[in-house]
Design a protein that fits this description.
2 helices; 30 strands; rod-shaped; WD40_repeat_CS; 2 domains
């Protein structure tokens, strides 16, 4: 279309040029015809008009020259216009080519837009499908949540019923065990080989093979050995009866036996599945029992180093354990599941379970082996009958959690330590306070920080959060020595039954042997 338009404009320009040339020729001929009489008159010999006509002829020649000049200018202008017309024609052709390219691009964009529109419609359909599926899944989730809540409520009800039945079974089992113990007691009473009993301060004590003995305790002042016993902390340590061998348990799940005379490691008892929080050893020195954060108790044979029993039944970490002082058969443990369990090592199972609302941090058998002392998070000291599971007595021992219980060697005094940084001594028969020990700077570092009494019952040792070990005189209730060697809070202290040495352990797993 643009091409035909340019061609018609060129034709029109050519026609205009031809018409202008014809007009110029006609004018030239007309002027020549008009001037012909003048030329004839000039040729006549009229002397009078010669000069006048000569002037007119010169004027006419000048006009004719101006006309020729104008014609020349018009011709040049016409040539310029023709050149411009040709340039305009070339530009129009370029524009036409550009328009064609743009039309192609527009067509391509339209096709692409149509494809995108089609894809968008498909995406919208897919999104609508996903939204509908999500709504269905949400509905199903709400239904499943409702079912889960219903199931959880039913499960809780069943657990409550199961616990009730378990308690009934425990009571029946306690009755059977009591009957069994009564029968066994009668049989033993008729046996001529029954062990003799002796009366000590009104409390029955049963002698073990190899009667216990001790020397007068010395006041330690020097760190003889500094042992890197465990990694991650040592929470429990005790001496083997009538021996200088030290047993330690740590957060690295290991129980180790040390010779305090040489500072050498004697043996390593492995197999514990959690951190060792408390230790005890039977009076015949045949078994070591560890309370573990894995909810279990582990019993090792000292001679073979192998695990004899794994006592299971607690549902939370076991934090305290003690063995009967009258025999090596009965063990008592407490855990953060609000239970205290009595175990029979011969049979290897739990013989009684005591359930109480306040968690127990520390335990100790009385001298007769029939009652136990327990120290609780609520700060109270309680006395229990292990056969019936009944609470015999309780007293508010501390204003904060009880962390440790130690029985004196004669069984007349029980020592308790608490998070209130006080160490109280109670008369076992009346549960009245017979002594209170405290010191500036002595701070109990954890809920399971263990203090101890010397074998002659004249001194008390307790660790502090600043790494020091304080030693009190029981008779004077004052500090007689402060031992400093640890670089972290001291978690436990234990005194050898031979009167020396004293051992202490800290949160870095370092054990110090003091003489």
């Amino acid at each position: 279309m643009a091409k035909s338009c340019c061609q018609s404009q060129e034709d029109i320009a050519n026609e205009a040029i031809k018409h202008a040339l014809k007009a110029l020729r006609k004018r030239h001929l007309a002027e020549e015809g008009a001037h012909a009489p003048v030329f004839e008159a000039l040729s006549r010999p009229f002397v009078s008009q010669g000069s006048e006509w000569k002037e007119k002829a010169e004027k006419l020649e000048e006009e004719l020259q101006q006309i020729y000049k104008a014609q020349s200018r018009l011709s040049e202008q016409l040539v310029v216009e023709v050149a411009e017309s040709r340039a305009s024609k070339a530009l129009a052709q370029e524009k036409e080519a550009a328009i064609n390219d743009l039309q192609k691009e527009v067509t391509e964009f339209r096709d692409e837009s149509a494809q995108l529109k089609k894809d968008l419609e498909e995406k919208i359909k897919a999104l609508e499908l996903i939204i509908s599926e999500n709504a269905e899944l949400k509905t199903q989730l709400e239904q499943m949540t409702l079912k889960a809540k219903t199931t959880e409520a039913e499960n809780k009800m069943l657990v409550d019923r199961w616990m009730l039945e378990k308690m009934k079974d425990a009571e029946r089992l306690n009755e059977v065990n009591a009957l069994y113990e009564d029968v066994v007691g009668r049989l033993k009473a008729s046996d001529l080989e029954k062990l003799a009993k002796q009366q000590v301060d009104g409390i029955v004590r049963q002698g073990e093979e190899g009667a216990e003995f001790f020397l007068e305790s010395t006041n330690p002042s020097t760190c003889k050995y500094r042992l890197q016993a465990h990694e991650g902390g040592c929470a429990s340590a005790l001496f083997v009866y009538n021996s200088s061998k030290l047993i330690t348990g740590g957060h690295d799940r290991s129980v180790k036996v040390w010779d305090t005379n040489t500072g050498a490691l004697s043996s390593n008892l492995s197999g514990c599945l959690g951190s060792v929080l408390d230790l005890t050893v039977t009076h015949d020195n045949q078994s070591v029992i560890a309370a573990s954060s894995s909810n279990n108790l582990f019993v090792w044979d000292v001679n073979s180093g192998r695990v004899r029993h794994t006592l299971t039944g607690h549902t939370d970490k076991v934090c305290a354990v003690d063995v009967s002082k009258a025999s090596s058969r009965h063990v008592v443990s407490s855990a953060y599941d609000r239970t205290i369990k009595v175990w029979d090592l011969v049979k290897g199972y739990c013989s009684n379970t005591i359930i109480f609302y306040s968690n127990c941090n520390a335990l100790s058998f009385s001298m007769d082996g029939l009652t136990i002392f327990s120290g609780h998070v609520d700060g109270n000291l309680r006395l229990w009958d292990i056969q019936s599971g009944k609470l015999l007595s309780e007293v508010a021992a501390h204003s904060a959690a009880v962390t440790s219980i130690s029985l004196s060697r004669n069984g007349n005094v029980v020592l308790t330590s608490g998070r209130d940084n006080i160490h109280n001594m109670f008369d076992v028969r009346t549960l009245e306070v017979c002594g209170t020990l405290r010191a500036t700077g002595n701070r109990v570092s954890s809920n399971w920080s263990r203090s101890c009494m010397s074998p002659d019952d004249n001194h008390v040792a307790a660790g502090s959060a600043d790494g020091s070990v304080h030693i009190w005189s029981v008779s004077k209730s004052n500090i007689v020595s402060t031992l400093k060697e640890h670089n972290s809070p001291v978690l436990c202290c234990t005194w050898s039954g031979l009167g020396k040495p004293l051992a202490s352990a800290d949160k870095n797993g370092v054990v110090c042997v003091w003489t």
